[in-house]
Amino acid sequence: MLTYLILTVPHAVCDITNSNKNHTCDFLAPKSAHKINELWRQIFPDTKIFLIYGDINRKLVDLNRQQKPMPRFHQKLHNIFTKIQTSHILLWDIHSFPYGSFGKTSSKEEPWLVILYRKKYSWIKLLIDALQKKGYPCKAVLGDRSNYIIQTAHQHYNIPSILLEFNENLSDNQLHLLVFKLINITSELMK
Fold first, then answer.
1. Taking the alpha carbons of 167, 146, 77, 54 in that order, is the dihedral positive or negative?
2. Nearest to residue 36, comparing CAs of 176, 167, 190?
3. Residue 179 structural domain
4. Global pTM?
5. Averaged pLDDT for residues 46-75
6. Angle 124-130-136 from CA coordinates, rounded to 5°
7. Alpha carbon 29 to chain centroid distance?
8. How many domains are there within the chain?
9. Contact, 96 vs 167, CB < 8 A?
């Protein structure tokens, strides 16, 4: 059982135009993180959840990249990392993508979820396989090595971390079903 879950949403702030054309924010990421937080607390009320939303638009500062001076978002994250001393911890870096950004799944469908990972964890393949067997189109992709959140969690704190990209075309019901199943499968795999 996980003792701690850290949810980061670095691209939560949209610019004034809120334009989908330039994708200056991850439109579905805050809603996805909120849904994960809500359902995780219902299913596993003893897990302590930290939810950190970005506080600046990615056109000004990309919070997935190392910055000098360190933004408040990174300061909050480092404070959490240094306070937690346990092996029962997981970090999910929450993002969302517009239609067509990640191609199709092996079953030729637009993915509902794409998992980007920095380090191979055997449970990621098991997670993807389990979600696909339950009928959720998803895929795993080797992620960008310059993702500061994932890299810091791995290299400095040995925290299992993955980046979750939710399809911005998901309905509220699809998001709910996907998150519910994602939580349940993850909890089984992390035992």
1. negative
2. 176
3. 4-189
4. 0.90
5. 83
6. 105
7. 8
8. 1
9. yes
